[in-house]
Amino acid sequence: MAIAKAERLMNLALCLLGTRRPLSKRELRESIEAYLEAGSEDSFNRMFERDKDDLRELGLVIETVENLDGETGYLARRDSNRLPAITLDAEEAAALGLAAKVWQQARLAGAASGALQKLRAAGMPEAEDSYEAHHSALEPRIPVHEAAFEPLMLACRDRRPVVFDYRKANAAKPEQRQVEPWTLECWRGHWYLAGWDRERRAERVFRLSRITGKVRSRTGGFTAPVPDVVTVRETVESWAGETATRSALIRLRSDCGYPLRARAVSSRELGDGWDELEIPYGHGLDAWLVEFGPDVVVLEPADLRADVVDRLRAVAKV
């Protein structure tokens, strides 16, 4: 239903922007398929008024004009709805270029690439990518391999409850879950859904790779309040990132790895452009350290160092 409404709004906006004269309600109804399918004139009128208000809230300037016969017409003049010129400096252009490279999932990758091409055609400067110049062996990506990602992303956006089968790490068979999805978060290379579990009447975090089968939408609204996005992110980190049981000692190149520095319990300068940090060591730390490439060297413990080396060798073989 959300996608159908978005398509209807887009069609209405295109009709109003593409006309040189005001269009009446009758003409708009005959031009847009969704309006033709409205059950009655009253249903169409209610739908049209809601759509018109929604477009205005989105920023479209819609004029109401009365013709010589007293009939009301609508149009959206292009000069009134033209965006101002976009001006970006080199650093802003570099940030957008890096952001466009992040998404690996096909649906978002196409949109990011298309938006970047339009900005460049409008005069966005071609900035030197300092990240790529110094980290050519590594590429920033957010991988999305789970089929559940796209339907859950849309459900989070539209605030629609969902149902899916979920297999816990220690369970032999999946169980059905009825969830009000809040947000998707990527943590240490894995995607997690945070939301309200209706049957357990509590917030829960689900790893997308453990969702089996299709994600199915349900009608109706949310029954529990949605918390602040920062609180949800902290919840995902506490569920996904297991509690640290030991400490790890690493060497970190100066002026690099600020997320690691934020977690360090101690730090000292070694000289020659390196620092020594002590950070909490728990499940998944090896995968995180690999993301920093040659800027990090694990000193101890030995098993963590071996895990990081194995991961780097696997990357080098790809």
Uncertain segments are 129-137
Q: What share of residues are in beta strands?
A: 15-25%
Integer average pLDDT: 80
Distance between the termini: 42 Å
Structural class: alpha+beta
Shape: extended
Assembly annotation: single chain
Tell me the number of helical segments per DSSP (H or I, 4 or more residues long). Answer: 12
The main pleated sheet reads as: 5 strands, antiparallel
Rg calc:
26 Å
State the order of secondary-structure elements, H for helix, E for strand. Answer: HEHHHEEHHHHEEEEEHEHEEHEH
**Order of adjacent strands in the largest pleated sheet:** 7-6-5-4-8
Helix content: 40-55%
E-strand count? 12
Output the keywords:
318 residues, alpha+beta, five-stranded antiparallel sheet, four-stranded antiparallel sheet
